Amino acid sequence: MSHKRVLIIGGGAIGLAIGWRLARAGCSVALFDRGRVGCSASWASAGMLSPLSEAQFEEEDLLHLGLKAMEVYPDFVGELEAETGCCVGYRRDGVLLVGITQDDLEYLKFRYRYQRELGLPVTYLSGAEARSKEPHLSAQVSAAVWCPGDHQVDNRRLVMALKRGVEAAGGEIFEDAAVDELLIDGMRVIGVRVGEKVHKGDTVVLASGCWSRLMPGLPDSAKPPVRPVRGQVARLGTTREFALNTIVWYSRVATSTVAYLVPKGDGTLVLGATSEEMGFDEDVTAGGMFELLRAAWEVVPGIYDLRVVESMAGLRPGSRDDAPILGKTPVEGLIMATGHYRKGILLTPLTALTIAEVILEGRTPEIIRPFGIDRFGL
Amino acid sequence: MSHKRVLIIGGGAIGLAIGWRLARAGCSVALFDRGRVGCSASWASAGMLSPLSEAQFEEEDLLHLGLKAMEVYPDFVGELEAETGCCVGYRRDGVLLVGITQDDLEYLKFRYRYQRELGLPVTYLSGAEARSKEPHLSAQVSAAVWCPGDHQVDNRRLVMALKRGVEAAGGEIFEDAAVDELLIDGMRVIGVRVGEKVHKGDTVVLASGCWSRLMPGLPDSAKPPVRPVRGQVARLGTTREFALNTIVWYSRVATSTVAYLVPKGDGTLVLGATSEEMGFDEDVTAGGMFELLRAAWEVVPGIYDLRVVESMAGLRPGSRDDAPILGKTPVEGLIMATGHYRKGILLTPLTALTIAEVILEGRTPEIIRPFGIDRFGL
Questions:
Q1: Are B162 and B291 within one domain?
Q2: Rounded to 10 degrees, what is the CA torsion of A228, A229, A230, A231?
């Protein structure tokens, strides 16, 4: 059992999962969130676990990380559910990437060829074949790539389970507790200050997503290059007659809109998401909703009459190269777990396991070595 | 001073305005609402007072009623504001009916010719002329009809002022008080029952909008042929740089979508409205929002980045001929004030004044004679 005192800044999925692993390993854990835990980007997410559908050129390290993350997911979820009694809605739905126009199809084929080069288990389908998998697809859908290895989790249930897990393992959670200063002595972290109160610790984990860079007290060499990338989402209420079998993902080339429809166990259909560089603005906008609804309706016309249950925006922490920033920093005892961008929910278990290893064992696992803050040469 | 005991069923703008006029005339007034007063169709309205822009073929009696309603509006508002100290946001903005496509223009010209035949003071404008009135119009807008005589009120402030007016004049308002039965003895109304409690009265006004037809105890000959016509609306938050000078109204012929943008004094921009026959379903839907946002964005592209502050749906009470149902019924003492459809806020003052005259003086003013329930031959 470790007896370290670990302070975690940020109570999204990443911070909570790290807190859970460390608390159950015997660390004394205190987690601080500026608002309520799990209610920022983690809450706005659609919970897709989709390294196959999202495989991008020039990001093979990141793909490798995502595939590894998929491997550890089932056990992580199993332990969490067993310890907390919560179900987190892990499902192996698969993703259908769909296209309508000639441009969409060129883009689909380009994606498909790249996926095949990487040896990923995906299949190119005609429109009719795609509709046989998902009968709610529009007759306009002319082709699709089927990614059966992509899964999903209920991100909201996940963060609530993680919160319970932290508390059950004896961790302390402070909500509405913005950290006002990171306390560093020489180049060694010694704690954090919240208002007037100083919390001392051996280790501080910076997991505050797009806000990580703004933490007062961070030296320049440990300022993670992350920025907010707004994602607007809507949640629709489905009916007994209307339920998707698969996740549907449409990259609408004509307007560079991405819309995915992710059916959840509680009957809601999550419709995400814009990607907008708007600073820290968390507004839901007329244009954002319009683009999402148009693209979703074009590929799944049956959403037309569904109730709009909710709309919200979250701020993804995008790093300079879109990959996460994980592990040790030039400040002794200060550990990064930020910059997860579009993959925060996917990478939650793997980040928690590897960051716990860094803290408990003092060594950096091979898989996260390409993702250190040192790669930016700050 | 009258000493009648008047019971009003329904606390929308119509019921409240009648209550206010009768209470200040000395009647003992009790008003019953199934929920909170003013929070159904009156709350969802955009508050346009637009008999000119909405003039329809074959509805000349209704146009005449609307124009008369415009005449009495300023004095009515003046009295209400003076008595309650509330400002109800009455504004003389004018409406620009705009078009983009060839089909839109054919429809605009058709509307314009009809308006001119009726002698209404409207002007046909080129796209450039329209943009000089409202610089936020899209360059795609190719023509417009300018209706400077159409005005607006803040419908939400109006109902809140009317509520205060009723109470200040000594009327009683019962909220969360659905009337369970209309009590009739022979063919004379004697009161209403709410739960176990009986309220006696000489006169009962049925002003419960699309729910009017469902009132238990109504004989067939007094069942107003009204049905719910759903209207979905959104409210957007404007910025200092973005404020419309005029109301903009777009009838998008290709999809039969109507979208109007109504700037309010508090900086919100009301965007209405769908017209859907969906029974008593008050859902906001993906398709409804999509159609509204698309049409509004096409004519005023600057809405794209505005925040979506709110979305809701209201149920307009549409009658068989789209005109209101006003005045006496075959049941002595039972007075109708329902079926106002798209014109509830416009007709509120005139309905209140004329219905008060029916009740206080026993005679039916000429202007509302075409709108009796007897016209349906029930």
A1: no
A2: -130
Q: Give domain status of residue B271, yes or no.
A: yes
Residue A117 and residue A56: Cα distance in Å, rounded?
12
- Closest chain B C-alpha to A151 CA, distance in angstroms: 25
Look-up of token digits 């005679």: B363
Measured from the Cβ of residue A78, the count of other Cβ atoms closer than 10 Å reads: 11
- Domain identity same for A238 and A345: no
Confidence band, pLDDT 50/70/90 cuts, at residue B365: very high
Q: Are residues B130 and B195 in the same domain?
A: no
Based on the domain organization, do A129 and A241 belong to the same domain? yes
Interface contact A297-B307, CB threshold 8 A: no
Helical axes A13-24 vs A155-168, angle rounded to 10°: 30
Q: In this structure, what token pair is assigned to residue B317?
A: 């009470």
Range of the domain at A308: 95-148+228-319
Strand spans (E) along A2-103: 5-9, 28-32, 48-49, 95-99
**Mean pLDDT, to the nearest integer, of B285-300?**
98
In a domain, B29, yes or no: yes
Which residue is it, tokens 């067939």? Answer: B220
Q: What are the tens digits of pLDDT across the range A236-247?
A: 999 888 899 999
pLDDT bracket for residue B2 (50, 70, 90): confident
DSSP strand E in B33-135: where?
A: 48-49, 95-99, 123-126
Question: CB neighbours of A63 closer than 8 A, spacing ≥ 6?
Answer: A51, A55, A56, A118
If one counts the domains in chain A, the total is 2
| Location of structure tokens 């980045």 | B305
> Quick one: B167 and B315 in the same domain?
no
- Is the separation of the CB atoms in B108 and B144 below 8 Å? yes
Residues in chain A whose Cβ is within 8 Å of chain B? 234, 236-237, 271, 283-287, 289-290, 293-294, 296-297, 303-308, 311
- Helices A155-168 and A60-84, axial angle in degrees (round to 10): 60
The two tokens of residue A17 are 């999962």
Same domain, A315 and A234: yes
Q: How many Cβ atoms sit within 10 Å of the Cβ of residue A23? A: 23
Contact B285 A294 (CB under 8 A): no
Q: In whole angstroms, what is the distance from residue B283 CA to residue B280 CA? A: 9
- Taking CA atoms, B229 is separated from A239, B211, B275, B276, in Å, by 22, 11, 6, 5
Does residue A196 register a pLDDT over 90?
Answer: yes
pTM of the model: 0.93
Structure tokens at B103: 């089909």
Q: Does A143 share its domain with A233?
A: yes
